[in-house]
């Protein structure tokens, strides 16, 4: 911990001082000292803007967002990457999505499928090879569905993956669909999320209208990816409280869940950035209202569960949910106190993907740690400033390239009683279809940075020396070489689950370990230290 | 319960189009790895930012160390109109923010398909004054739809020779050494041999000290290691060259010979006894040296270990997958141990690879340009006692209940590969030790209680 950190405005100047002037100006708009005014008004931040060429960025590409993030955790669809081998190889098992197919279930998540395009196909076209690949996949595995993901060169040579998909669907009699998710589309993974969700909505949701399981309290969870087993924790809680989970988009999910998702009565949006479109489309088409939830942190979990129960206007459900939350919160509180005593007053910065940079702040609050700075890798302005700014977001050329689905009310399946319930509850002050954004919930004078670069990351550490840094695999060891422990929040390193009540305690334990691990005090030997007095590290005993 | 539960045994159908569980990846990551073996170089990926992100992530997961590289960050406009504008902006940004000695650009399937001309863009960057005095830009053409990650390494090595080596009328006494795709510690071990044998040399690329940087409380953006640009330049004045691992180094070796008149041997990576012998024989041929007693001792220790332990190794069946330059000497070494290499798969294609592996081991199931799905089917039909390959083999190993030696790239779930060499005689000792431990642990685990033995 350091006594005097330069303030956010000074830090911002330091971070951009070395840049060429045009770049400095642009980056300046992507960094703001947070200021929360009445009505949750916050400063504007430039987001979803192109990465400056040459900058070492945290960002990935559209293919990564589409295949890796959204379809990655779905177990019984054969996902074929159409392109040279690399993209399929790199998105193979690298996000730690977990699934439990049971003893006989289908599970293709451990496989990597690629059409492995060679030079010949780049010159003469790869559609024939793709067709053959789809046929071979069908013959070997007999899956329910096969999906096809376009990589950069596929877009350039003009292979029509959708035409191939239509042809194969007819020929094989199973669902086959494609994604135009070439890596160069959009400015980050975010474009890939949008493309993925659109196709899942278009080609799967609504195919199966049979109501299975219990008839009431039917919910979908959107934007949860079962990293490190998060979904398992949430699923168990839903069961205990009495909710029927119809579909998760897309952690621990199956084709059948998506096909049946329209039979739910409520959608909950967890990662707003990756999936808000699905919630909007389902409301328009089927009348299912959506609420923003968060299962990261014990308090957030309790709040979300109770809000879900309140929606269903069922006294028994609400009472049971409240009782479970009370019981679990009491257990968590004992552990929280134990760990917070060791993390109290320490500081953290979080630069990760989408909602995680926001959600995990709740957990750090529970650990009594101060969030100095935060930002997203692939956010849009509403993720920072809240959905109230949606009408003022300018649509640029890169966003216009992403298809917007035109959705209309499905006269047969639209359930008016859901929208009536929404209206009634809204009158009582219950909020739907809203996301307040990250900034209103952060301290004034904390620093918000969109699309932070590796250079800025290092500079920020030099200036502010946080006790813990949250980022991804590419940044992790840079940060740790600087003597600061780095928690990956994309895939949790090897830890988790961190969701819901037990997950929160896991997180407390891991952050205590990281912030207080003796290893960070061993960097220099006595003869390397400037001041010999501080040489011998005082090691704190680990928490029993 | 099995993990890869959909992989069938029995009759194996030939696939024409679908690759399942690749035993290879794409060119640019190899180029990135080679570039990082130049001190003060920043690899630059010319394409959309996902490629760079994936390659950095995979190398980082393998080494648990920082891997720095920049990208041209193509968006749809660059894909349509070409990437020149992005690359020129990138070059300017890189020199002002990251100040490398060298930008080592590799292309991607995107920029190659568009047809971006690296020679012309590089010239324009110099003409437009975007390159500060004394700074360099080198490049390698690495379209992902040709070859594999090994090809990418080879192409960047060729770029290093073409762009950094200087021609020389007079020849020195030193040897230009091009190691293939091996670990930083392997490069260090090869340098130790050269030092012990008294051979003056310049080695490039050299990732020793790059991916195994010490923890100091500072992030050193350009780590201590890496071949220095001024040293690489002297390769044009070398007495001879020695290239280790033909697939990854032949292009560089040929470039040295054609452009700079430096001739030399291309031998196998020195993995195992015979391949290490051949590396030393090549040095004897060039330098007429007497092999140091300490090296002879190391060789003797390896043979001693093999003779002491042959009863545990003899006839054991092995399945192996990975990169050709490693598979060739490793298969040979396993045969030296008396093991029976049943199944061999490499994702990289080439007649040379097929011929060498067939020559070393004519009776194995061999697929050059194959995938791990096929290897798994072979293992189901004809079980083995040991599986050797990168981390992605762990699922097959668990399903088939086979001891598993992690070897090659990438290793994402174990440590040590960056620190403990597997080349040379001592590296051979390490490999035998690892194999023995796996086989003996297996005996200890499976043996009936009344047959448990203290000594083995």
What characteristic shape of chain B results from the CA principal axes? globular
Contiguous uncertain segments of 5+ residues of chain A: none
Strand order of the largest sheet of chain A: 1-12-11-10-13-14
Binned strand content of chain A: 5-15%
Tell me the helix content of chain B: 40-55%
Number of H/I helices of chain A: 21
Distance between the termini of chain A: 24 Å
Largest two-chain interface: A-B, 91 and 83 residues
Q: What average pLDDT do the residues of chain B reach?
A: 97
Global mean pLDDT of chain A? 95
General form of chain A: globular
Name the poorly predicted regions of chain B: none
Structural class of chain B: alpha/beta
In this structure, how is the largest beta sheet of chain B organized? 5 strands, parallel
Strand order of the largest sheet of chain B: 12-11-10-13-14
Question: Helix fraction of chain A?
Answer: 40-55%
Written description of the protein model:
- The complex is a heterodimer of chains A (544) and B (456).
- Chain A has 544 residues and is α/β, with parallel strands linked by helices.
- Helices cover 43% and strands 12% of the residues of chain A.
- Chain A has helices at 8-16, 21-29, 62-71, 85-90, 119-124, 127-141, 152-157, 161-172, 189-203, 230-241, 255-260, 272-286, 298-311, 315-343, 356-366, 381-385, 397-400, 416-427, 454-464, 473-481, 500-516; strands spanning 31-33, 77-82, 113-114, 145-150, 175-179, 218-224, 244-250, 266-269, 290-292, 347-352, 370-376, 447-449, 468-471, 486-488.
- The radius of gyration of chain A is 24 Å and the shape is globular.
- Chain B is of the alpha/beta class and 456 residues long.
- In chain B, β13 (386-389), α16 (394-400) and β14 (404-406) form a beta-alpha-beta unit.
- Chain B starts with 18 loop residues before the first strand and ends in a 10-residue tail after the last helix.
- The model of chain B has no long low-confidence stretch (mean pLDDT 97).
- At the A-B interface, α3, α4, β3, α5 and α6 of A face β1, α1, α2, β3 and α3 of B.
- β3 of chain A pairs antiparallel with β1 (19-20) of chain B.
